[in-house]
From TrEMBL:
This is Anti-sigma factor antagonist. The lineage of its organism: Bacteria, Bacillati, Actinomycetota, Actinomycetes, Streptosporangiales. InterPro entries: Anti-sigma_ant, STAS_dom, STAS_dom_sf. Belongs to the anti-sigma-factor antagonist family. Gene3D superfamilies: STAS domain. PROSITE patterns: STAS. One of its GO terms (molecular function) is anti-sigma factor antagonist activity. It holds the Pfam family STAS. It comes from Nonomuraea phyllanthi.
Length: 101
């Protein structure tokens, strides 16, 4: 399955909708979008994952990248995370650095 993403920025919140499979080939695109969001001075990142069917370790590295690039104290929230994607995040322990709903 292909990967698509779309970002919307309102105030200090960037919302990115992800669909498809986030893997080694699509991760650089997400990192580029996160860099754009940081450039717009956002303090909160919301990732809508209800259409994301797969996340590899490269996808988890994208979350770590976002955590490192956002200003200290910023919040990353994952919304609509499918169980199989949530499990990948939990296995790395990164679920303690973000909010998953």
């Amino acid at each position: 399955m292909s990967f698509t993403m779309k970002m919307n920025v309102e105030g200090d919140t960037a919302t990115i909708r992800l669909a498809g499979e986030l893997d080694g080939s699509s991760a650089p695109d997400l990192n580029d979008l996160v860099t754009q969001a940081v450039g717009r001075q956002v303090g909160r990142l919301v990732l809508l994952l209800d259409e994301l069917t797969y996340m590899s370790s490269a996808g988890v590295r994208c979350l770590v990248f976002a955590h490192q690039k956002l200003p200290r104290g910023s919040q990353i929230t994952l919304v609509g995370t499918k169980p199989e994607v949530a499990e990948t995040i939990r296995l790395t322990g990164f679920d303690r650095s973000i909010v998953m709903r």
